[in-house]
Design brief:
The protein is α+β, with helices and mostly antiparallel strands. Helix content is 40%, strand content 10%.
């Protein structure tokens, strides 16, 4: 049976170990930010550990093609950078009890393959029964409902 002093020493050691693991975890997550560069060096993207795009750099060489090709190259780099960042964040969980084999199966959802033209906002046709242009206003000028 442990004495109170032994129990306290054991407890303090566990707390110190958890504090160190928390610090290591935080540093591992923070260092998971990723920068990816195209093979020709014309495009670079940086993503945060959560996958948010935090940087985009283009050289004049990158601007030499079509807008569609440039957008596709940028998105491919963003997807790759997000996957790398997700891998780094997932690996940060291993020392604090994350199963390494489960961590290896984490994948970032691929971006949509829709072209930019396909993502333009579209107006929905209003059916006759939904036309509210002749409706009575909710609020009248005489301050009454």
């Amino acid at each position: 049976m442990q004495t109170p002093d032994e129990w306290l020493a054991d407890f303090e050691a566990k707390v110190a170990d958890l504090q160190q693991k928390a610090t290591d975890f935080k540093q591992a997550v923070e260092s998971s930010a990723t920068t990816m560069t195209s093979p020709d060096g014309a495009i670079s993207v940086t993503v945060a550990p959560n996958g948010a795009l935090t940087g985009l750099a283009l050289t004049d060489v990158a601007l030499g093609g079509t807008g569609k090709a440039l957008a596709e190259q940028i998105m491919a780099l963003v997807v790759a950078a997000r996957q790398s960042a997700a891998d780094g964040v997932a690996q940060a969980f291993v020392p604090i009890g994350g199963a390494a084999d489960v961590v290896q199966h984490i994948e970032v959802a691929p971006e949509s393959t829709e072209s930019i033209e396909d993502t333009k906002p579209r107006r929905r046709a209003v059916a006759d029964e939904e036309d509210y242009s002749e409706s009575t206003p909710v609020y009248k000028n005489n301050d009454s409902w």
